[in-house]
Every structure is written in C-alpha cells, then in structure tokens.
Amino acid sequence: MLAMLKNGACRQNKVMDRNKDGIQELDGALRDRFLRLMESESLADCIMVKARVEHGVRSADILQPTLAVLLEGEKDVRCPDGEWVLRPGLLNVMCAGTRMDVVSRPDPVTGRYLTLLVPLCEEVLAAARLLWGTPVAGSAAGPMLRCVAVKDFSEEMAAWSEALLRDDHAGARVALVSLVIGLARQGMTRLLFPPAETLAQRIRRHVMDAPDRDWQSRDVEALLGMSGATLRRHLAAEETSLRELLIDVRMGVALNLLYGTRLPLKTVAARVGYRSPDGFVRAFRARYGLEPSQLGRDDA
C-alpha cells in the first residue's frame, strides 16, 4: 500500500503544485482551539485521529459526509476524483460513498499525526438544504472529495470550536450549517443533494445504526420488504453483496474506534459484531492491509 502511493508521488506533487496558493499554515489561535478540544470532553461525535508511525489504509470508505482538518503531519489521498497531499491549513471535504487510499505521515518535528474528523449529521445537512433552497440541475453530480483552505472558512470553524468548548452543541451545529452552505457555494453541492440512495447505501445506513448486531439476510429482507432472491439480485446489479456491505460498514466503524479511542481491541471487535478478537484482526487485515496495532493510538 505504501509503495503504491509513493510510486505516484510525482503526480501528487504536481497536483499540489497547482494548488500552492491554497496551502496556508493553520491559524495559530484556531489550531490551539482544536488542540484544546482534543483534550476536552466536548468533541461529541467528532473523532481525533492520532498516530505516531507512518501507515497506509487502502479502500477506506466514508460512511457519512465528513470534514477533516489536518493539524500535524501529512496525508496522501487517492480516490477517483484525484490525488492530493494534505498538509495543515487544508480542509478535506468528503461526501458519503467516497472510497480512498490513504497514507498518513507524522510530523518530523513533533512525531505526531493529528487529524480532526467532523462527521456532518443529518440535522445539519437538512438545515443547510432548507436555507439553500431548490437545488439546481447537476447539484448531485459534483465532486465526491475536495480540498479547500481552512482560512476561507476560519470564521465558521472558529464559531464551531468556540461553541463546543462552551458545551453549546446547538451553537456548534449552527456554525456547521453556515460552513456547509459556504462549501456548497464553492461547488460542493453534493453534500446537500447527494444522488438518489442506492439499495447498498440504504443497507449501510441500517447497519451503521447497529454494527454489533448479528445481521442475517432475513433481518435486511424484513427491513426492506423484499425477498432474499430479490435482495441478492439487486445487490448483484450494484456489484456488491450483503456480506461485503457488512464487512465494509463494520470495518469503517472499527477504523474510527481504533483511531479515536483507547478501547481495548476486544471491545472494538465486540462493538462491530465480532465475538473473537482474532477473527476481527483477520478481517481488518484483509480489508485494509494492515494490523489494528499499527495505528499507534497511544500518545505515549
């Protein structure tokens, strides 16, 4: 995985050369707020990704619209929309359904890799849609992933972080609504108006609500009101299967837990439906090409 992305370094650097004006050091005051959030209990559903070793993750799925702010280190990203080298000062905007290969590198000075992930809840997106109004033609055909300068949205990011530090979660959502509208004005209308939900996406949504459930085909059939044969036929037309969807969602949730918490491996495995930690490790290794222990969650 690492070799695959490193072999494309020249192409990635060319991509970034065309965007040098967008690379700005993260504002010191804003960075300090983010770091204070990391140490507080105010992050709510946000995730602080931490690592101390360079590592790659292949075919990582974005299960819901998410913003990512890189605080320390670098991240190489490759997806169908293009290739990027992310550095502090860039805001990574990812729509649901994005699948990407990633290599994360710690900062050579601090020895840390830190990224703040902000999933966008449906309440925020619904409010933004209401304020945006009727979608224009092609709104759902925009990019799946985009990188913009944090400085272009510093006011919204400052309001969001300040509200969270005050435990004002309503105020934080209002700030995110403003941020989402600003991103839509820059072309990320797909955040507000994604394409019609596929059957696979509907199933993902249900599994995300209870990844530890012992999902069987009959459970999904009952939820969707269709027979097993019809379910299999429609999923085959979307080039997937129920087994693949279950693995994708469980591994995506597990990745967030491994990055953002210090839960024991056994607990992470149980939370995503694996009774055996060994079985979970095998599935994680097969899905991402690395061991869970390689993520370096410990700050020590």
Note down, in words, how this protein is organized:
The protein has 300 residues and is an alpha+beta fold. It has 12 helices and 9 strands. A hairpin with a 2-residue loop joins strand 4 (74-79) and strand 5 (82-86). Helix 4 crosses helix 6, helix 5 (154-165) packs antiparallel against helix 6 (169-185) and helix 7 packs across helix 10. The protein is globular, with a radius of gyration of 19 Å. Mean pLDDT is 83; it is low at 1-24.
Taking strands numbered 1, 2, ... along the chain, how are they ordered across the largest sheet?
1-8-3-6-9
Rg over alpha carbons: 19 Å
Q: Which segments are poorly predicted (pLDDT under 50) over 5 or more consecutive residues?
A: 1-24
Number of helices: 12
Sheet having the most strands: 5 strands, antiparallel
Listing every helix as H and every strand as E from the N terminus to the C terminus, the arrangement reads: HHHEEEEEEEEHEHHHHHHHH
For the termini, the CA-CA separation is 26 Å
- Silhouette: globular
Helix content: 40-55%
What is the arithmetic mean of pLDDT? 83
Extended strand count: 9
How does the helix and strand content classify structurally? alpha+beta
Quickly list its features.
300 residues; alpha+beta; five-stranded antiparallel beta sheet; four-stranded antiparallel beta sheet; 12 helices; 18% strand
Map the helices and strands.
Layout: H1 2-6, H2 9-17, H3 28-39, E1 47-51, E2 55-61, E3 66-72, E4 74-79, E5 82-86, E6 90-94, E7 99-105, E8 113-119, H4 122-132, E9 145-149, H5 154-165, H6 169-185, H7 199-209, H8 217-224, H9 228-237, H10 242-260, H11 265-271, H12 277-288
